[in-house]
Design a protein that fits this description.
Blueprint lengths: L13 H13 L4 H11 L8 H23 L8 H26 L2
C-alpha cells in the first residue's frame, strides 16, 4: 500500500507538461516530487555552479596546505610567499561569499 494514497489530477497543455517533466528531470526528481516541492516552497533554485565552486575551493585548500607544509619544512623561503597566500585566501573568500549568497537564497 502506498504511503500517499491521495491523488491530484490537473489539466495542462502538452507544452507545459513537457516543460514540467524537463525541469523535474533536470533536478533528478519525479514530476510528483517537483510539483509538491513547488507547492511547498513556491520556488526551486537550480544552482549549477555549486559543484564547480566546491571543486575550486577544494583545489585552493589543497594549494594552501601544500604551501604551508613546504614553509614549515623550510623548502620555501620566498619572502613573497605571503602575497601568494593572500591571493589564495582572497579567492577562497570570494567562493565562500558566493556559496553563502546561494545558500541564503534557498532558505526560507
Amino acid at each position: 500500500m502506498r504511503s500517499n494514497p491521495e491523488r491530484i489530477v490537473i489539466r495542462t497543455t502538452a507544452e507545459r507538461k513537457s516543460t514540467v517533466r524537463e525541469k523535474a528531470k533536470k533536478l533528478n526528481m519525479t514530476v510528483a516530487e517537483y510539483m509538491l516541492t513547488m507547492e511547498e516552497r513556491g520556488i526551486i533554485y537550480v544552482v549549477e555552479d555549486v559543484p564547480n565552486l566546491l571543486r575550486q575551493l577544494g583545489g585552493m585548500g589543497n594549494n594552501l596546505n601544500q604551501l604551508t607544509h613546504l614553509c614549515h619544512i623550510g623548502r620555501i623561503k620566498d619572502p613573497e610567499i605571503l602575497k601568494h597566500l593572500e591571493a589564495n585566501m582572497k579567492g577562497v573568500k570570494k567562493i565562500l561569499r558566493s556559496l553563502s549568497l546561494l545558500i541564503g537564497r534557498t532558505k526560507k
